[in-house]
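REQUEST ID: PR-0412
SUBMITTED BY: lab tech R.K.
PRIORITY: routine
TASK: structure prediction, single protein chain
INPUT:
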Amino acid sequence: MKVRVNGETREVRATNLAALIAELDYGEALVATARNQTFVRGKDRAQTQIAEGDEIEILTPRQGG
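STATUS: complete
OUTPUT:
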């Protein structure tokens, strides 16, 4: 299915947010996630289904100042 990840359209196989993070090789990285502009807690990702056309944001923390 096609979803937008961080503004880029991608063809993915994952059906939930946890599987999408794994499919995109984020591994065990600390990330913040949102589906269709709604924050999704880490513990809820496996239960958060994704569908064709969803907009997903995956953000990693950065240091600096």
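NOTES: The CA atoms of residues 33 and 58 lie 5 Å apart.
REVIEWED BY: pending
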